[in-house]
Design a protein that fits this description.
With 274 residues, the chain is an alpha+beta fold. The protein is built from six helices and eight strands, in the order E-H-E-H-E-E-H-E-H-E-H-E-E-H. Strands 1-4-2-3-7-6-8-5 form an eight-stranded mixed β-sheet. Helix 4 crosses helix 5. The radius of gyration is 18 Å and the shape is globular. The protein starts with a strand and ends with a helix. The mean pLDDT is 91.
Length: 274
């Protein structure tokens, strides 16, 4: 099987985008274009140093701590992943190839005025289950399921929606309210915990579903409610996105979040690549 590899790049503060950002529609598009250009250069260098094309893989993104929780970086990562697709390092970045993306904190200090982003590509065999690979890293972990099913179109929020900041905030608020009872029913997950979020789309086609990472803004709101209630840590040890089996009801989406305990100092990249 193809060997894994990684790239590291820095993103200047003026290009940093988050899943709770308040940029205008135009500003967000301009930032994505600039990030995609930077990403192409990083992946081009990786290819010149021997990085090979992969078919199915887990992507692990280690994010410097300048901007808080690593899952907020999903908006910055999106154009960087698109840049890897541009360079031909994988057939596509859909969930049939990039089967899972996991965000984790990088404990190293960031350069002044920049954030370090390290992206590791971990190949999977043709039938390997990415969820099983993740859960196998933390045997004995205790989990808290938080579900938010049947999210209507008036509340559903993704990074691709062209919405003004006020409407984005309103939708995030509705998502937080919608999962509060589920969080309370299970209690605290502890100070050291990770999240795994399965996304289900209303699409019956077998070979096409939406990108789970596009739901990062909705998932951020769900985890944020756990933080607000004192039931989840503000900075998870990791946060992963996967495509759920089946399909949601027409006009709705489902989010199944598993908050699970991890040991203090746990490193997802070492566990997955070991």
């Amino acid at each position: 099987m193809t060997q894994g590899y990684a790239v590291t790049l820095t993103v200047p503060d003026h290009l940093w985008a988050t899943t709770v950002g308040q940029e205008s529609i135009t500003g967000r598009a301009d930032t994505r274009r600039s990030l995609r250009r930077r990403g192409r250069a990083a992946w081009r260098t990786a290819a010149s140093l021997g990085a090979c094309r992969v078919d199915r893989f887990i992507m692990v993104v280690a994010v410097g701590g300048s901007h808080g929780s690593p899952m907020l970086a999903a908006e910055t990562l999106k154009p960087l992943v698109d840049a890897g697709t541009d360079q031909g390092l994988w057939p596509d970045d859909d969930p049939w190839h990039r089967t899972c993306t996991l965000y984790m904190p990088d404990p190293r200090p960031d350069p002044v005025g920049e954030t370090r982003v390290s992206i590791a590509v971990i190949p999977l065999s043709p039938r390997e289950d990415p969820a099983a690979r993740l859960l196998g890293c933390v045997p004995g972990a205790k989990g808290r399921p938080v579900r938010l099913d049947g999210i209507g179109d008036h509340t559903w929020l993704t990074s691709n929606m062209r919405l003004d900041p006020k409407e984005r905030s309103a939708r995030q608020g509705r998502l937080m309210d919608g999962c509060a009872a589920s969080w309370r029913s299970h209690g605290s997950v502890g100070a050291h915990a990770a999240g795994i979020c399965w996304v289900r789309y209303p699409d019956s086609r077998r070979e096409y579903k939406g990108d789970p990472d596009n739901a990062a803004e909705s998932a951020t709101a769900m985890w944020g409610e756990g933080v607000a209630l004192g039931l989840a840590p503000a900075v998870p040890t990791g946060f992963a996105f996967l495509l759920a089996d089946g399909e949601s009801a027409p006009g709705t989406h489902d989010l199944d979040l598993l908050a699970l305990t991890t040991p203090p100092g746990f490193n997802w990249l070492k566990a997955l690549a070991g």
